[in-house]
Structure formats: C-alpha cells, structure tokens
Amino acid sequence: MRPLKIGKKGATAMISVKNVTLAYGKRVLFDEVTLNFTKGNCYGVIGANGAGKSTFLKILSGEIEPNKGTVEISKGERLAVLKQNQFEFDNETVLNTVLRGHDKMWKLMHEKDAIYADPNATEDDYMRAGELEAEFGEMGGYTAESDAATLLSSLGVKEELHQSLMQDIPSNFKVRVLLAQALFGNPDILLLDEPTNGLDIETISWLEDFLADYENIVLVVSHDRHFLDAVCTHVADVDRQKIKIFTGNYTFWYESSQLMARQISDKNKKVEEKRQALLDFIARFSANASKSKQATARKKALEKLTIEEIQPSNRRYPGIIFQPLREVGNQILNVEGLKKMVDGRVLFDKVNFSIHKNDKIAFYSRDPLAVTYFFEIINGEEKADDGKFEWGTTVTKAYLPVENGEFFQKPVPMMEWLRDFVPPHVTDADEPFLRGFLGKMLFTGDEIEKKVNVLSGGEKVRCMISRMMLQNPNCIILDQPTNHLDLESIQAFNEQCVDYKGIVLLTSHDHTFLETTANRIIELTPNGIIDRLMTFDEYLQDERVQAMRRDLYGD
C-alpha cells in the first residue's frame, strides 16, 4: 500500500500523518508518528543531523514509502517540492524548468499545443482543445511565463539567463531556479529542504517576505535561525524517533524549552513562581510576535498557548568555550591598501583599517570569495596582489576556514589528530586532557577512535572547533562557521561568540549569528570598503550605507 493518499475534499488537515514508522535495519528513524499539518501555517522542521528531517519530507511527498502508516492529503491539493538534483533538468531552458513546477499546467499546455500542431486534428480534437484552453486559463496559464520570469528575477536570476539551458548556467543559479520551480503557481503544500542554501542575504530576505505572506501550508527544513524565526508559525521537532509540533518560531521553542529545563532542575522554586514565570514568558513573546512578518497567525497561536504545551528539549548542546591565554594589546591588526584579483576579477581593493580592543567584526561582500581570500591572506595562506598587513605581537589567532579537507587527509584516530595541534604553552596534554576537548564537542566513548579521514562534514567542523579551543586564542577568525553544523551546535557557537572576551572576525550566511555577534561591519568591494560601528541589521537598513554600496559596486 502506498503511503500517499488523497483524503476527502474539505478535510480540516491538508496533510495527515498516521502511525508512520520507518526503519533501516536496526536503525529506527520514526516510530508511530501521528501529526496534522493545517492550512495557513508554516512548520520549521528541526532536529539533529541524521535525525531524519529530509527523510520525513520525502515521506510526505511520496518519494519514500514508510514501513508502516499513511500520509493523507486533502483532495484537490497540489504539492510542490524543492528538488535537490541540480542535473535533472539539464536539457530544459531555465524558464521551462520553472514552468514544469506546475506539472498539471505543463502537461495541459503541451496537450493543447499538440492538437493545434496536428494537421490531422478532428473537430472533436478542437473541441477538446477548447476545453483545455479554458482550464489552462483558470490555472493562470496565460500569465505563466511572465509570472515565472518575475519569480526568477526576484531570486536573482537575471533575464538574460531565462532562455539558457540549465546545463549552461552556474550551479549557484541552478539552486535558485529549482527554488523558483517549487514556488511557482502557488502550490497548496510546499516542502522546502534547506531553501536558503546558496542565497545571499538580500535574496533570503525576499524569500522570507514571500513565505511570510504565503497563505497555504509550508514545511521547511533549515539551519538558518533568522529565516525560521521570520517565516515559521510552528516548530516540528524531530527527536528520539518522534516528531512533536510546538507553537511559535525557533527562538520561542529554544528559549521556552531552555526555561522549562532550568525550572525542572530547580526543585526549590515554588510551583506558582514557576507558573508565573512561564506565563510572563508567553506574554512577552506574544507581544513580540506583533512585530514579526507572521504577526497575526503567530500572535493568535501564542495567545492560545498554555504552559502545559511548553516542554524541555532533549537536545545535547556542545560546550564551546574559547579561553584567551592573555588579553590582546593595543596593536592588534593593521591593514593597508590590500588588493586581490582572481582570474582577472577584482575581489577587493583599497582595504584599509585597524582593529581595536573589543571589536567583533562581520566581514561582508556580494562576492563570497572576497572574504574567504581576505581571511586566507591575513592568515598567511594566500598572497595579496598589493598592500600589506601586520598583526600585533600579543595576538594568538585561531582560524576556522570554510574548506577544511587538507586537515583530514591522514587516517589517524581523532585523539591522535588533536594531539598534533597542542600548542607549546600546554605541557601536559595527556589523554584525559584531550578527551575533555573532544567531549565538549560531544565526541564520547569509542567515537574518539574514529579515523578522521572518514568523518562527516559536521564531525570535521566539530574537530576543528576542538582544535581552536585548544589554542587558547584571543582572536578567532571564522569563515562560514555554521556550515555542516546542526542547530544545537550553531546555537552554542553563536552564544560563545557573543560572550567571548577576545576579538572576533567572521563572515556567515547566518543572519542571526552576524546580528547578535558583530558590533562593527566591514564590507569588501572592488573599489574600497565600507566600515561602520553598528549592528548587521542597522547596516542593512542604513540608507547612507546603501547609497555607498551602490556607488562602490557601480549599480
């Protein structure tokens, strides 16, 4: 029996999941999961890496059949999925790839066009074509191409690419085309797995606005907390083979679950005091919801919430702690006239600035390569085409590069790998000492005997963070620190960067990471820099800054 069923027209729930169980051998992903997803809500699907978030979306779409249970969709509802295979439509034009997102419209269009192109078509055929024309018009077929073109342009795919074959456009644009395909035609059910991957901040903001105004049902898997907060009315938490739905966005779920966990551990606190604290917490978040893009739906949902619905999280959060061996002096980093070109393209030029105590700087650029090359240069991994830089003698750096493959070539156990990075000031790096650093990143027991060359992307990043902590740095440099990490690690990493007493230089696609950590923004452009003492949100909203950006980029 196929799990995907069409329910009765007018059913309350657009998607009804009943007793879904899925196991691969002895590994059980889902055990008797029963849920309803209803119209007008956006559900952020969260969970640790490997918990089954993407697999659950595939079950909902019918791509994967569970061992037991069913998925029922209300009659007449159209479901759209963000496809992950970038090569599936290689022989289609960009515009046609988007149009194929509405499969019924696409087939109907070709059926009627085939009749008109057939010299032997009969009167009955033309009657059929007339019926198809009417149905095509009701679907919005006559504005389909212009609607698809507008969607593509909104996602940063310029008009000159619309008639190109998918195989001829860069991979970062393919991701955007597939996203446009999923959004096209206002589907009743929208399943999005990591839709912000490959998008810049401006495009993510457009997508947030689009989904916040979306009136149908959306399920989205994402590690971007700002995105989840902007679009989600509910959180679907995948944990311990079950899925639970909680009212509110990601931040509400995280803070409420942390509050409940603290209250459970505090046995001396009076019951009524706990209850009032929770009620105050709900009221505060309900008031804040009125300022969000999902204002009405989220505010009403929170106002109906009872404290019984708040539950502590079962998540394990890593212990990321950077402890500087010494404080930085007055001379930290001076940069003068740095320039870098790649393949004849200027990534940045005329880069001049100095770092001061307490600086936490977010580096930003329209070209993501610009910041990566800048970080490589100041870490001695690349050479600039012009200019110079100088670090102060009191600075101890720890660098997290965006690409870490070169660190994991040798098939050595994790413990031995970490031992190679013990700094000179550490005189007693015995097994308990090293195990402590790995344990903070949730590597326990026999896990530390795993060979580092076979680790997953997330495990490698966690090893790199253990290595950074071992250095006792007073300056950390982070290039896309959230890549490959689950939400728990991202949250812990972010909170440590906020609390950290040293210098932070970072770039990230994670809006929340930038907004909460940085007190200074430096944007690298081909014609100079913009350097402002302000938060990231203030930077994006400052009209004078935006005017400068247009001038420097030549818009």
Task: Walk me through the structure.
The chain has 555 residues and is α/β, with parallel strands linked by helices. Among the domains are: 61 residues, no CATH class; 221 residues, 3-Layer(aba) Sandwich (Rossmann fold). Helices cover 38% and strands 22% of the residues. The chain is built from 19 helices and 19 strands. Helix 3 packs antiparallel against helix 4, helix 9 packs antiparallel against helix 10 and helix 10 runs antiparallel to helix 11. The chain is globular, with a radius of gyration of 26 Å.
C-alpha Rg (nearest Å)? 26 Å
CATH superfamily heading of the domain at 333-553: P-loop containing nucleotide triphosphate hydrolases
Structural class, from helix and strand content? Answer: alpha/beta
CATH class bucket of the domain at 333-553: Alpha Beta
β-sheet strand percentage: 15-25%
C-alpha geometry: globular
Main sheet characteristics: 6 strands, mixed
Walk across the major sheet and give the strand order: 6-7-8-4-9-10
Estimate the helix proportion, in percent.
Answer: 25-40%
How many strand units? 19
Supply the CATH architecture of the domain at 333-553. Answer: 3-Layer(aba) Sandwich
